[in-house]
Amino acid sequence: MTWLHRHRWLTPYLLLAPGLLWLGAFFIAPLGVLAYQSLQSGTFDFGYTFSWEFYNYWDAITRYKGHLARSFLYAGLATVLALVISYPLAYWIAFRGGRWKNLLLLAIIAPFFVTYLIRTLAWQNILADEGTVVGVLRDLHILEPDGRLLATSTAVVAGITYNFLPFMALPLYVALEQIDPRLIEAAQDLYASRVKAFLRVTLPLSLPGVFAGTLLTFIPAAGDFINAQLLGTPKQHMIGNVIQSKYLELIDYPAAAALSFILMAAILIGVIAYSRALGTERLTG
Amino acid sequence: MTVRAEPVRLPRRRRGVLAFLRQHALTAYAILAFVYLLLPIAVVIAFSFNDPRGRFNYVWQGFTLENWRNWDAVPGLRDAIVLSLQVAAVSSILATALGTLIALALARYGFRGRGATNFLIFLPMSTPEIVLGASLLALFLNLQFATGFTTIVIAHIMFNISYVVVTVKARLAGFDRHLEEAAMDLGANEWTTFRKVTLPLIAPGILAGFLLAFALSVDDFVITYFNSGSEVTFPLFVWGAARVGAPPQVNVIGTAIFVLALAAMAANILIQSRRAKQSKGIA
To answer: What pTM was estimated for this model as a whole?
Structure first.
């Protein structure tokens, strides 16, 4: 204890050490190993050796550009849908929820209490060919008599949207809840129409929530492979499905590792571009 | 601010048909959104009482309690649940300990490398799970470390630390340091102060972090899938079962987890609000 007293500056580092060492060993180091693996060449039978094989990246991009594009398309669509669904919902809870706010919030995160795989299977059930939804849509002639929902892109996007929606709704709610209603009243007292008050006051103030929610939804959505696996067919497979099968079934480590980094890099570029765009909007808006 | 001008508020005209519609359109939209959010949960619960013919639990055939009565009639299900609970218990306790220490350091000390630490905590949460899982497996493969119970626990601690840090830090942010100074002034040493003052005050935050870690651990599929070896946790069991048609018992366990999590959440809210009332009473 006395030694510690003399070296008080050490205390924070001692508190940090165990946790950060863990993250260093099992988060940072693995990324290093993955990078190393992505530059290997060879085959499963003869073993893989390190050889600065940057071609792996090029090969992965050209071969799986369809999967990459689909991942970002699905994740983008799901993010927009989640925003469209949850913004009015979060707005309603924040401004009209009254004393039921906490209960309504609980209802928003309720899907998280059902195991991820099980709630995806529930969508399999809802969208199944024998299910009510398909039946009604067929009767209304929205779907062809032999039209399907399951095993289509629609099903995969719907599943992704549902599974990550709370990630969007919660930050939106937090941002909207913090807005002082008097600001909106002030705008209306100054003869702003309700629409204008919303566009000039509420929306700009809620942008941090939109930003956080979009990232929290988009990032896991882009790497997801469960929805495509359970609700789609190989035609809907995303980059996550390729990484998963390369790593665990085909044992093609270099390609899987290269794809992982391509996914991370693409997400990073997207996030930076997006934060730039929204940042300038916030300055000018 | 000494401006005291009370805004002269004219009663806003809201009686127009359009305004009425608009107001209720929002409510209707919110109700529809809630239906959308809760429908799959209702399906999970309902189909835990289904009496399916054949191996697909897709079509409603009739009500039965058999699935609940024989919840472990499916081979491997009980073992999977036990394994999931073991992994969750061990990994969330350790992640809570490691994460709480980091949160303490971040919330109460200014030190060199604070920004970098915050960034390092944020990073695992913003990395796709599949990359976390694949990279960890790459490490174990290179070290020729056999995957199994240990590697699942290692992985779960890794992804849970950040969530615990964020949760506990939120609690520490509203912490009144004067309370600790008062204890020290009254002659308590640092350890006693920590044990008798700091710990009880941040205990709800730690508990919340622990519960979150536990829930994330029980629910995790992707990272576990990569690092489980031949072990089967509950989500992995569901994955395997889904390929041949998941039995209704899967819905039974899903419903049970849902109800337990909801109860824990409700209890947490209740305790928090009671504590808030108590501390108000003292003040």
So the answer is: 0.86
